[in-house]
């Protein structure tokens, strides 16, 4: 039997109120809808009686107002949703009171409270959150792709493991397995030859859970997903099965790792949100960037260096995050490569997903810290044809293929390098705090873990 939806309607003074009342009456006449309250969000063009009493009388329903009738009362909308236990918000307003930007801001408020936001030709739904985990957990999500989620996830997993929390990682990727797959990074030796064997079997051996297993040496569970919505939901994924599998393995803490801007559809105790400051500012400050940021207990800014982002841009984004989520810790970082094997005095061909604009910084870091000679680089790990061309161009000069474990790292970079007689060494990416105080990042991550455990125990005591 279909249940009654308790509806909050948003109205403006740019419509004659008899017209607005007709719309409210029509909604109320629908079998499974009940308009329980109305919020006036601005506009004066067609107001004859602008008093709260007059508007309430004309509409024949409880009408609520913000402190300033000329501004959208975002806080009041949230308050009324909670007060009336609202199931859905229906927007009956229009331009010029709301524009696209303001509607996304309303959507962020509404979706953050776990209910849909609808209008004449749009519907935004809150993200899916299956409550299946039986262990303390955190979620790592991001505002886009190629901003370092897997690198941070692996870094966090290593840190948590060193502090004796016994974690596992559940990761979803666009190339993940049909059924959730356990990789015992804590037990098996993941060599280039081993990954080639997996690749030859049809496995996407550079999927995120393989990278997590190699870099962190812990148990990981790989899942797949297709599609990514504006808010962060996916079209299909087997991550719920992966989370259920995490309940059964030998681990005491679960890290759920997102994919691109898609958010793991599993309810967790805490959230770490990555923001790539190399992204257009509008994608962070507008649309559903604020929604993702609002979920965070810890925000890690990545790519915080020239030429990817100016100091002014980094500061602007830090200030924005502090304004909309003042309770979250915000830490700015850059990534630096860390080979998993010895490259001292070797001629290196370096394959990465980092943009070409930053290659000189990465080359200098590798040569200064690891004593190698970088004879060539390619930023095309995610572009197989261009990657192959770069390998062919440099392969006669190199002794070692140094590659991140992403995209085409196995089926192209590893394969071509092994066939040419090169040694293959995989490379991690380490987040480095821009002020040099990496203990601050470590402490912040452990604080989130401790908070997640406390929250979990509180719910289950």
UniProtKB/TrEMBL annotation:
It catalyses: (2R)-2,3-bisphosphoglycerate + ATP + H(+) = cyclic (2R)-2,3-bisphosphoglycerate + ADP + phosphate. It is found in: Cytoplasm. One of its GO terms (molecular function) is ligase activity. Keywords: ATP-binding, Cytoplasm, Ligase, Nucleotide-binding. InterPro entries: Cyc_diphosphoglycerate_synth, P-loop_NTPase. One of its GO terms (biological process) is gluconeogenesis. Its EC number is 6.5.1.9. GO terms for cellular component: cytoplasm. It comes from the Archaea. Its main location: cytoplasm. Catalyzes the formation of cyclic 2,3-diphosphoglycerate (cDPG) by formation of an intramolecular phosphoanhydride bond at the expense of ATP. Belongs to the cyclic 2,3-diphosphoglycerate synthetase family. This is Cyclic 2,3-diphosphoglycerate synthetase. It comes from Methanobacterium spitsbergense.
């Amino acid at each position: 039997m279909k249940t009654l939806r308790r509806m909050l309607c948003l109205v403006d003074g740019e419509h004659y109120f008899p017209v607005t009342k007709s719309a409210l009456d029509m909604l109320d006449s629908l079998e499974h809808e009940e308009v329980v309250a109305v919020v006036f969000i601005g506009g004066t063009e067609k107001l004859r009686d602008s008093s709260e009493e007059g508007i309430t009388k004309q509409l024949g329903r409880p009408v609520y107002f913000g402190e300033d009738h000329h501004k959208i009362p975002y806080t009041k909308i949230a308050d009324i949703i909670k007060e009336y236990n609202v199931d859905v918000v229906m927007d009956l307003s229009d331009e010029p009171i709301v524009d696209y930007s303001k509607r996304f801001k309303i959507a962020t408020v509404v979706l953050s409270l776990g209910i849909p936001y609808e209008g004449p030709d749009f519907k935004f739904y809150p993200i899916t959150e299956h409550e299946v985990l039986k262990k303390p957990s955190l979620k790592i999500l991001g505002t886009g792709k190629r901003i370092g989620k897997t690198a941070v996830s692996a870094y966090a997993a290593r840190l948590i493991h060193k502090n004796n929390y016994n974690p596992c990682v559940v990761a979803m990727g666009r190339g993940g397995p049909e059924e959730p797959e356990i990789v015992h990074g804590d037990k098996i030796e993941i060599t280039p030859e081993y990954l080639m064997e997996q690749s030859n079997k049809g496995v996407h051996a550079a999927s995120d859970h393989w990278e997590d297993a190699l870099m962190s040496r812990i148990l990981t569970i790989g899942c797949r997903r297709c599609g990514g919505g504006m808010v962060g939901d996916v079209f299909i994924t087997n991550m719920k099965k992966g989370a259920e599998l995490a309940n059964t393995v030998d681990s005491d803490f679960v890290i759920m790792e997102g994919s691109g801007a898609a958010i793991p559809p599993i309810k967790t105790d805490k959230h770490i949100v990555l923001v790539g400051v190399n992204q257009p500012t509008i994608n962070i400050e507008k649309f559903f960037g604020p929604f993702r940021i609002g979920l965070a207990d810890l925000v890690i800014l990545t790519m915080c260096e020239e030429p990817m982002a100016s100091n002014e841009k980094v500061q602007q984004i830090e200030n924005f995050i502090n304004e909309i989520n003042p309770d979250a810790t915000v830490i700015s970082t850059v990534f630096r490569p860390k080979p998993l094997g010895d490259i001292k005095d070797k001629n290196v061909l370096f394959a990465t997903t980092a943009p070409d604009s930053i290659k000189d910084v990465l080359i200098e870091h590798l040569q200064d810290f690891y004593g190698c000679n970088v004879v060539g680089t390619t930023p095309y790990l995610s572009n197989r044809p261009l990657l192959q061309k770069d390998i062919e161009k440099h392969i006669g000069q190199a002794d070692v293929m140094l590659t991140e474990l992403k995209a085409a790292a196995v089926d192209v970079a590893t394969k071509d390098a092994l066939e040419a007689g090169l040694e293959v060494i995989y490379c991690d990416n380490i987040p480095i705090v821009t002020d040099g105080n990496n203990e601050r990042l470590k402490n912040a991550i452990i604080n989130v873990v401790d908070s997640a455990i406390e929250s979990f125990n509180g719910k289950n005591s």
